[in-house]
């Protein structure tokens, strides 16, 4: 085996077994939350229409997206569990990120609609049945507490599960706001409280939706994982004994919670490339929780001519005395 060939190493880590167990548990908790939400949503739509409450109807609409988000998350979990084959060399793990992004976009779109309707009803408020709104919202709080509890027991390091959780958590806040609005309407007759509650819900949706779109977008754009600075990592790896230069450094996420790194490392002629590779892998594993690595380690004198003629980002070199 040549030095160049010996310098290549692909390390996949050992996530698959634990991930399968976690995915099975996640499916059970997501399914339980889905049943709770669908059962209550059907009743809430009827009550919202009868009570002429935008806050209740907005809650029901949000619950519909909750149910869709959980269903989408369940499909994504099943797809992500499929083994890599054919042209999908990472499998379908990013189906979970597609699900998270879809959840974020639906939250933003719903927020825009509720904002429009809330402002319209502030200007011309309809008659709202306060007691009916209050009673329904209180039941909704109980249902959403149960659904939130189920989703908290799933693996929220998955952006897919976190997307479904954010939907349900925002719906819980929405029911609390609706209950307050129903009490105000019942006690004072001030119908605009219902529209204000809907606007509060819209603001919460924007916050959660933007966070999901931003985080999933970073993964699609193959940005470095949050909290991992490539310059810091490159500078640290350049201090490993025998390393002369490290370049073509890429750090990205395959899916949430699964980071990957590739780099080209040049070492001195007296250095064993395999020893350097092992040392770098240990640093990445223990200091940055990166286990999926592809490292090309070459002696500087044996590096292919013109191997890095294009732009590959900054080069990190060992400090000289």
Describe the 3D structure.
The chain has 321 residues and is α+β, with helices and mostly antiparallel strands. The chain folds into two domains: 16-220, Up-down Bundle (Alpha-lytic protease prodomain-like); 225-317, 2-Layer Sandwich (GMP Synthetase, Chain A, domain 3), CATH 3.30.300. Helices cover 63% and strands 12% of the residues. It contains nine helices and five strands. The protein has helices at residues 3-6, 16-51, 54-80, 95-123, 130-152, 159-188, 192-220, 230-237, 273-288; strands at residues 8-11, 243-255, 258-267, 292-299, 316-317. Strands 1-4-3-2-5 form a five-stranded mixed β-sheet. Helix 3 (54-80) packs antiparallel against helix 4 and helix 6 packs antiparallel against helix 7 (192-220). It starts with a helix and ends with a strand. Residues 1-21 have low confidence and may be disordered.
Task: Note the topology.
Layout: H1 3-6, E1 8-11, H2 16-51, H3 54-80, H4 95-123, H5 130-152, H6 159-188, H7 192-220, H8 230-237, E2 243-255, E3 258-267, H9 273-288, E4 292-299, E5 316-317
